TrEMBL record:
Record protein name field: DinB family protein
Pfam families to which the protein is assigned, alphabetical: MST
Record-linked Gene3D superfamilies: dinb family like domain
Species the sequence originates in: Streptomyces flavotricini
Tree of life domain: Bacteria
Coiled coil: none
Location of region: Disordered: 16-38
Length: 188
């Protein structure tokens, strides 16, 4: 474990704006065309947060991705990827009236506890997140009316979409700090 004096210097790849993660021309989140409509806007924000999380994890090895923040926290970038895969699966439980899908990683906090420095765990977590995102997106595509109420609790699709954005936004903020702790790279 590194001590406080062993921390990497803060840095960014951006040359245009030093507080950015990447230069505007290199940033895959830059979309010059604002989406039309509420649903498209919500989907655009969600897509950009998903890209941000991937960007915060890029160019890191399994040890760096699994590196925990500060004791006693179990939070790591890999843990966030696993957690969001679990959360995507759980959102599908909100949509259905049927039996809930089983947990991907087991008991509470297993998503973080099982985030170990093993490339197979990293590869599985990335695949899990992509699969769960696609499945939740497909389930929600069947409900284009944002006011429609679904599931046992009658949650509005709009509320579910906003909650998803909030969840990714919060975890992307944590990913900012986790990445800075790993190698000093900063930027939104």
């Amino acid at each position: 474990m590194r001590g406080m004096s062993d921390q990497s210097a803060r840095w960014t790849r951006a040359t245009v704006y030093p507080d950015m993660w990447a230069d505007p021309d290199d940033d895959p989140r830059n979309n010059e065309n604002s989406p039309d409509g509420e649903l498209a806007t919500l989907q655009d924000f969600l897509a950009n947060y998903r890209i941000t999380l991937r960007m915060k994890c890029e160019d890191l090895d399994a040890e760096q991705l699994a590196r925990r923040s500060v004791p006693p926290s179990t939070m790591s970038l890999l843990g966030l990827v696993r957690h969001l895969a679990e959360v995507e699966r759980d959102w599908r439980n909100w949509i259905t009236d049927g039996e809930p899908l089983p947990k991907l990683y087991g008991v509470k906090d297993a998503d973080f506890h099982g985030a170990v420095a093993d490339q197979a765990v990293v590869d599985a977590a990335r695949a899990d997140l992509e699969r769960e995102q696609a499945a939740t997106d497909a389930a929600l595509a069947a409900h284009p009316d944002l006011g429609e109420r679904v599931g046992k609790d009658g949650i509005a699709i709009r509320e579910l979409m906003v909650h998803r954005i909030e969840e990714y936004a919060r975890h992307c903020g944590q990913a900012d700090l986790l990445r800075e702790c790993v190698d000093g790279r900063v930027g939104q």
